[in-house]
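Weekly modeling sync, notes
Attendees: S.R. (lead), two postdocs, one rotation student

Agenda item 3: backlog of single-chain predictions. S.R. asked that every request posted to the team notebook include the full sequence so nobody has to chase files. The rotation student volunteered to paste the first one in as an example of the format we agreed on. Action items at the bottom.

Example entry:
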Amino acid sequence: MSDTPPDRLSVNPRSAHYDDDVLMRGVGIKFNGEEKTNVDEYCISEGWVRVSVGKAVDRKGNAMTIKLNGVVEPYYKSEAPEDAPAED
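Predicted structure, as returned to the notebook:
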């Protein structure tokens, strides 16, 4: 696993940009210099994040989101897992 988060990531398992291994490691987002904890999806190259809006949900039960444009800086919250040594 690389030391930089992917260009695009989503927390929705139905998305093509969902990656369970990356999410298990923990990804934090700084957006325009502020720490965001309600990010559902981000894209570094296009410069946007989708954030949850309160407790509102759509008719399918998904959280309502809005898209914000700006500087996206993702980072890993924990170190990369080391390969466990083989037991004999």
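Discussion: group reviewed the output briefly. Strands lie at 8-10, 27-31, 34-36, 39-43, 48-57, 63-69, 72-76.
Action items: rotation student to repeat for the remaining queue; S.R. to check formatting next week.
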